[in-house]
């Protein structure tokens, strides 16, 4: 089993048949029912449920102190590693502090059985459909700006970000992937790319056992979308950075941190934190999102 916390590799291998099943197909499920009528958009932390495809899907929503339901806010949906929960991602990524400064909503969904049905594993839930339904609900009820909806994730959550970017046409302006990749059976078809522009920023650890897979996936992504990567100076020893403009108008930004493993660069708490990586994935990703709203 790949893309999981190293100390839990054995556990994942034991449960692979149950938790990391075959990947589902693009969603054709009916729309999700709205959350409970008691849901009231307001600043603060909200533990919420969205009924989708016969399941009650849970997520934590952080609304900043300056949240005004009458004014559209950008939205970041953050996906955890396997096995994990939305609270695991919240602790690791440190997105709330940036959200409070910039008045952005952040949602932390819980995967079924600790994971998301992404490109490699984990599970069989209709997670693409769930993330689409969650986005639509937060746009309609919490007045998230549909042109500024972004998706991020690490490991299994990073893989899920790529899958959702491809299969959710027009919903996500950009994705931020940390220690995750574009690989697996679904990605073998040249046509498996977004049908509308989705910009990508990704962070790869040079010591990650999956680094070569992640790097090959990014080369394939850029080749298929007609991207032309070129190196860009970043001033951080041991870090290489390439930026590519793509034929569909999207942009791809790839950071490779030579001495980092399967981690979130710059994180100071939580599993998979890499505080000494020399850069902050959260800060760089946040700025990338702000610069890449959805293209008309």
What labels would you give this structure?
single chain; 296 residues; alpha/beta; ten-stranded mixed β-sheet; 7 helices; 12 strands; disordered N terminus
Task: Give a written overview of the molecule.
It is a single chain. The strands form two sheets. The protein has a ten-stranded mixed beta sheet with strand order 1-2-4-3-5-6-7-10-9-8, sandwiched between helices. The protein has a two-stranded parallel ribbon with strand order 11-12. The longest helix has 15 residues, at 127-141. The protein is an alpha/beta fold and 296 residues long. The termini are far apart. Mean pLDDT is 89; it is low at 1-37. The radius of gyration is 18 Å and the shape is globular. It has helices spanning 9-19, 86-93, 95-102, 127-141, 156-167, 211-224, 281-290; strands at residues 44-52, 55-63, 73-79, 105-109, 144-154, 174-178, 199-205, 228-231, 239-245, 251-257, 264-265, 273-274.
**Form type:** globular
Individual helix count: 7
Order of helices and strands: HEEEHHEHEHEEHEEEEEH
By DSSP, the count of extended strands is 12
Q: Major β-sheet, in short?
A: 10 strands, mixed
Radius of gyration: 18 Å
* Proportion of strand residues: 25-35%
Question: Average pLDDT, to the nearest integer?
Answer: 89
């Amino acid at each position: 089993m790949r893309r999981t916390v190293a100390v839990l590799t054995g556990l994942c291998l034991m449960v692979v048949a149950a938790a990391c099943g075959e990947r589902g197909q693009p969603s054709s499920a009916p729309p999700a029912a709205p959350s409970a009528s008691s849901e009231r958009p307001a600043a603060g932390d909200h533990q919420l449920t969205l009924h989708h495809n016969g399941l009650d899907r849970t997520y934590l929503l952080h609304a900043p102190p300056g949240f005004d339901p009458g004014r559209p806010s950008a939205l970041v949906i953050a996906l955890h590693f396997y096995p994990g929960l939305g609270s695991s991602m919240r602790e690791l990524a440190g997105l709330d502090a940036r959200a409070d400064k910039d008045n952005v909503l952040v949602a932390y969904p819980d995967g079924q059985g600790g994971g998301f049905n992404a490109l490699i594993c984990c599970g069989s839930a209709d997670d693409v459909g769930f993330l689409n339904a969650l986005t639509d609900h937060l746009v309609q009820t919490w007045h998230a700006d549909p042109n500024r909806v972004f998706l991020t994730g690490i490991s299994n959550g990073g893989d899920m970000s790529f899958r959702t970017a491809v299969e959710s046409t027009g919903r996500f302006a950009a994705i931020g992937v940390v220690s995750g990749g574009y690989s697996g059976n679904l990605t073998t078809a040249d046509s498996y790319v977004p049908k509308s522009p989705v910009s990508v920023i990704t962070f790869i650890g040079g010591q990650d056992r999956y680094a070569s897979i992640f790097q090959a996936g990014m080369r394939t992504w850029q080749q298929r979308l007609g991207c032309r990567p070129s190196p860009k100076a970043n001033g951080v020893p041991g870090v290489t950075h390439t930026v590519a403009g793509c034929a569909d108008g999207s942009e791809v930004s790839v950071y490779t941190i030579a001495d980092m493993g399967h981690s979130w660069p710059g994180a100071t708490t939580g599993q998979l934190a890499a505080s000494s990586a020399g850069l902050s994935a959260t800060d760089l990703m946040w700025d990338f999102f702000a610069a890449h709203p959805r293209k008309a």
